[in-house]
Amino acid sequence: MTTLEAIRAALPAYPIEVSFPDIARWREGNTGIDYLHSFDSGKAGKHVMILALTHGNEVSGAIAVDTLLAAGVRPTAGRLSLGFGNIGAYALFSAENADATRFLDEDMNRVWTPSTLDGARQSRELARARAMRPFIDTVDLLLDIHSMHEASAPLMMTGPLEKAIALAAELGTPEHVIVDKGHANGTRMRDYGGFGDPASAKNALLIETGQHFAGSARDVALDCAARFLIHAGVVAEADMAPYLTQTQPARQKFVEITQPVVARSMDFRFSQPFTGLEVIEKAGTEIARDGDEVIVTPYDNCVIVQPSMRHLGVNVTMMRLGRLLNR
């Protein structure tokens, strides 16, 4: 039987192009919750948060938040919060097994429903989410910084609501915006509470900055965080100037996810060496096999989104399929 360890061993290892910040210095914040820092301007405005490390091996966000904290960035209006999520998984990161510390017990970005948070189930991720929850409940605008298993262009993940799609368009970066409904096996933080309520003024975005350990992902994380804070009106644009390193695209491309491709066995494999954002011209084109099942594109001009073998498992989403939207 094929094992995940064997699959990972056969995949090329990405070079680690960034330094992992020592975030232990940020443990004791001013919120009563470890690794969460909040600064109030004393002036009217929104509560805006930049969050890193929802997954423990996604270092670009940690670099961005560490950089902003070290720079002493403070709000000129409203309230600014900077924090780290799955600090337990991050602490156990090992370059020899770089894919293993996404989480410790369960995915921290699949637990954000009241029934789960209020339920009896226990895990280290749930304990952290429960500790953070009262604070997250006070946030008006959230940018959750993530990165990807494979080398791919950055993606802004909006969820299905028009308010988040509009916010992504107002930011104007990155080039590719993914409109999706999340995952069947749990709710993301960016869809939690008011963020996922179309009637609420709260809003959230999730940025996938690129491959986890790429220097370019670090730069995208800082650039996007800076633009998010400027757009929210909580910081002086001049204070963010050092981080605005990315050229904004002339036009964004919006891709609506129509369906996931979920592995039903450990004998799943792609039919081509996809890296993401490939546009498959014809419906019926083979894109993967799962045991004896042949998986084909369901329509013309089908976009491949976030394909990866690095977390293969039964009932795990291996890639998603989408259509280009006219926006």
TrEMBL record:
InterPro entries cross-referenced by the UniProt entry: AspA/AstE_fam, AstE_AspA_cat
Residues annotated as transmembrane: none
Residue ranges occupied by any Succinylglutamate desuccinylase/Aspartoacylase catalytic domain in the UniProt entry: 45-198
Keyword list, A-Z: Hydrolase, Metal-binding, Zinc
Entry GO CC: cytosol
Pfam families assigned to the protein according to its UniProt record, in alphabetical order: AstE_AspA_cat (PF24827)
Single GO MF descriptor: metal ion binding
Required cofactor names: Zn(2+)
Zinc keyword on record: yes
Keyword check for Metal-binding: yes
Protein name (record): Succinylglutamate desuccinylase
Source organism per UniProt: Pandoraea cepalis
The organism's taxonomic lineage, starting at the top: Bacteria, Pseudomonadati, Pseudomonadota, Betaproteobacteria, Burkholderiales
